[in-house]
Amino acid sequence: MRKGDPQRLITPCASCHGVGGQGGKLEAPALGGQNPVYFVRTMLHYHGGQRHNDVAKGMRFFAERLSRAEIEALAAYYADLPATRRR
Amino acid sequence: MRKGDPQRLITPCASCHGVGGQGGKLEAPALGGQNPVYFVRTMLHYHGGQRHNDVAKGMRFFAERLSRAEIEALAAYYADLPATRRR
C-alpha cells in the first residue's frame, strides 16, 4: 500500500489515494472504509477491462499485476481504514 | 439522500448505500468520506454513459434525473460523512 512493488512497476496506492486512504487531490477516490465486495469487484473489472474510467489506464496496469489474494488483502485493509475527510 | 424523490422515481441513496453511507450488503460502494471530486465525476460519467458498471443501469437512471447542483450537494454531504465499517 505504501511501498508498492518496484519489480512489478506497481506504484504505491497511497501516492494517489492518500496515505490515510482519504483520496487524492484530484479525482482519485477515497478508499478508507470502502465496501470490500465493491473494492474487489472494481479491481477485477479493471483487470478484465470491463471498467475503463481509470485515468491514464493506470488502474488496469496495476490490477493486472496484482494477484487475487493481494487484491483481497488490500480490500480488507482499506475496509478497516476509517475514511478521513481531506484536510 | 434518505427520501429520494418519488416524483422523479429516484430511490433514496441510503437504500443501497446504507443510511450511514457505509455501503450496501452486496456491491454498493461506501460513500461516506468519499472524495467529492471523484463523486461528481462518477455521477456525471453515469449521466453521460461513459461509465456503465452500475448494476441494472440504476445509477445512470438516477444521475440523469439529478441536477448538477443536487449532485454537488450529495458529494459535499457524503464527503463529510465519516465512513463507518459495516457491522
CATH architecture of chain A: Orthogonal Bundle
Query: Which two chains share the most extensive interface?
Result: A-B, 27 and 27 residues
At the fourth level of CATH, the homologous superfamily of chain A is Cytochrome c-like domain
Largest sheet of chain A: none
Give the low-confidence spans of chain A.
Answer: none
- Rounded to the nearest angstrom, the radius of gyration of chain A is 12 Å
Residue fraction in strands of chain A: under 5%
Number of strands of chain A: 0
| Tally of helical runs of chain A | 4
Highest-level CATH class of chain A: Mainly Alpha
Outline type of chain A: globular
Query: Structural class from helices and strands of chain A?
Result: mainly alpha
Task: Please outline the helices and strands.
Two copies of one chain form a homodimer.
Chain A: H1 13-17, H2 36-48, H3 58-65, H4 68-79
Helix pairs in contact in A: 2-3, 2-4
Q: What does this molecule look like?
A:
The structure is a homodimer. The first copy, chain A, is built from four helices and no strands. With about 90 residues, chain A is mainly α. The first copy, chain A, has a single domain, classed as Cytochrome Bc1 Complex, Chain D, domain 2. Chain A is globular, with a radius of gyration of 12 Å. The two termini of chain A are about 20 Å apart. The mean pLDDT of chain A is about 85. The interface between A and B is medium-sized, with 27 and 27 residues. Chains A, B: GO terms for molecular function: electron transfer activity; heme binding; metal ion binding. Chains A, B: It holds the Pfam family Cytochrome_CBB3.
